Amino acid sequence: MGDVGAAVEVLGRARRILAFTGAGCSTESGIPDFRGPDGLWTKVDPDDFTIDRFLTSRDLRVRSWEMHRRGEMWGARSTVAPNAAHLVLADMWDSGRLTGIVTQNIDGLHQAAGVPDHGVAELHGSVRSAICVSCGRTWPTEEVLGWVDAGQTDPTCPSCERVVKTTTVMFGELLPTGAMNRAQDMADAADAVLVVGSTMSVYPAVDIPLSAVRRGAPLVIVNRGRTDHDHRATVKLDAGAGETLTAIAAAL
After folding, report:
1. Residues tagged active-site
2. How many alpha carbons lie under 13 Å from residue 162 in its C-beta half-sphere?
3. Poorest-confidence range of 47-51, 196-200, 208-212?
4. Are 21 and 105 a contacting pair, CB within 8 Å?
5. pLDDT tens figures, 173-202
6. Is residue 175 packed enough to be buried (19+ CB in 10 Å), middle (13-18) or exposed (0-12)?
7. Which domains does the chain have, with CATH numbers?
8. What is the pLDDT of residues 130-163, one digit of tens each?
9. Could you check whether the bond before residue 204 is cis, i.e. omega within 30 degrees of 0?
10. Backbone phi, then psi, for 236, in 5-degree steps?
C-alpha cells in the first residue's frame, strides 16, 4: 500500500504528528508481542493478568514481584533498552514534530529514549511505577522492589496496608483517566497520525488515533502484518519499526 517515499510525503506536509505505538515498536528491544505466534499469551496464562486473580491470590502476587525483582518483567530492573524506533520518535519529539506519543506499551522505553513523561500517554500503565489499589498512593517500582529485597515478598502500602501493584492495567481494570485525557489532547492537536507496531485492534485505546483520522488527518501505518484499519491508511508499510522509521526520519 505504499513505500517510504509516500510516507515521507504525507508526514512532511504535517505540522504536528501524533505517534501511536504498540507492541511491535518494542519487539526489536527483545520484548515479545502478545498475540503473535511467539507472543506472551503462548507462554503464560492470560488469566494471571486479571485484577481479580491478582487481588485474591497471594501466590500470584509473590511470583509477580519476584519476577520484577529478577528483572524479568521489562521494568525497573530489566536490561531491555530503547531500539531505533524509540530513538527516532524521541528525536521527532525533540524537534517539535510530535504532539506526543500515545502508547499501548507498558515498558517505559519511550521515556528511556529521552521523551519526558508529559510527552507520553501510557494508556495501559507502566511496569516502572506502582500504586496502592486502595488509597492510590504511588511509588517508582524500584522503590517497591527495595521492600521486596528487604523480605516483603507481597508488598503492601505503608499507609493503609493494602495490596500494591504496578500501574499496568490488568484485565478488568479501567484505563487511567489522566492518560486518556492527555492522549485525546495530543490527538486533537495533530494534523497527521503515525501508527507504529500496532494492529489497531484494542479498544478503547485505538479510538484515540482514529479520532484524528475521522476528522481528516492522514494515517501512516508501520506494522508487520495487517491491522484492523489498513483500509483507512493513506500509506501502509508492512515492515519493521526501527529500520523503517530511521529511513523516514532521514528523509524528512
Report:
1. 124
2. 11
3. 47-51
4. yes
5. 999 999 999 999 999 999 999 999 999 999
6. middle
7. 1-31+81-124+175-252 (3.40.50.1220), 33-73+128-167 (3.30.1600.10)
8. 999 999 999 999 999 999 999 999 999 999 999 9
9. yes
10. -120, 125
C-alpha cell at 12: 512532511
The three grid cell numbers given for residue 210, joined into one nine-digit string: 482514529
6-41 as b/e: b if 16+ CB within 10 A: ebbbbbeebeebbbbbbbbbbbbbebebeebeeeee
Indicate yes or no: pTM above 0.90.
yes
